[in-house]
Amino acid sequence: MIHKNIFLAVTIAFFLNPCCAFLASAQVPKKLVIGISNPDNVTFFPLFIAKEFGYFKHEGFDPQLIVMNSDLAVKGLVTGDVDYAASTATVAKAAALGFPVKIVISFFNGTDFNIVTGPEIRTAKDLKGKIIAVSRFGSAADFDLRVALRHLGLDPAQDVKIIPVGSGPNRLMTLLSRRVDAAIINVGESLRAQEQGMKVLISTGKFNKQTLTGLGTSTNKIVNNGEEVKRVVKALHRALADFKGSKEKIRPLLIKHTKIKPDHFDFVYQKNLEVLSADGSLTEEDVTASYDEARKGAVNPPPVRLSDLYDLSILREVQAK
User: Fold this and answer.
1) In this structure, are 173 and 232 located in the same domain?
2) What residues contact residue 228 under an 8 Å CB cut-off, 6+ apart?
3) Mind listing the pLDDT tens digit for each residue in 257-286?
4) Of 106, 216, 275, 284, which has the fewest beta carbons less than 10 angstroms from its beta carbon?
5) Tell me: the pLDDT tens digits for 184-194?
6) Pairing mode, if any, of strands 182-185 and 114-117?
7) What span, in angstroms and rounded, lies between the C-alpha atoms of 205 and 144?
8) pTM above 0.85?
9) What is the residue range of 17's domain?
């Protein structure tokens, strides 16, 4: 009887102790739904680093990286069907219109996109009257393309025809099949296009800063489940540190993830390192493009400041430890 009472007392104490209760629950990782729009794109790669190297698991999570349109992912944040959305450009646009969502960490504050064309197009002037593929209207690729075209002296609304065809692989195949004259695609896809005789006309990321990928979530989750957000951000902060400082460690995983040739790793890695947010932060400048794009077509948008589009307080807590 004494032994039974001791066992019962220890068991009750175990589950009443918050620390022990957390350890008990941590034995079964919590599933998280994270929406990503293009899993092959290097800009989403920190999520896969955190998953494959066990950083999420260490924090008690089993992330489900679900491929979905970025608009749908952001809507899921509001309804609670999605925990986090990785396309921060879309999160920023939604926040700019008053949706209760915010960016909590940024991976890349610029794109690795290129305008890639058929071999017959030699200069920007040759794009006049041509068809160019983007993912969808209002996406980061679409915005990058339009800014680059203006820098090249072309009017995106008058001088070319822009059509939405979906993800990067779709844009690549549409270009290779010659259903379009040009496409805006990431650096890995650009390399594959060049192998098929296409040419890179110009890199577009250098023309403007914009938040591209990272994680956004609902303001409700930030307020009411801040400890979860903190642990998620902690896992991704470790992943960003790996991307920046552990090149050889991430080499095999990035090659596998992006399906690039090993010989292309250094080029792809360096291209993305140039636009990496090394510590996960971003500034008002990084969200200005998304903010302006979202609000210019809105009727009576609510008063929203640029600083309302993101909340770095949890990231700063992680960095302080």
Assistant:
1) no
2) 30, 221
3) 888 889 989 988 988 888 899 899 999 999
4) 284
5) 998 888 988 99
6) antiparallel
7) 7
8) no
9) 2-110+210-320
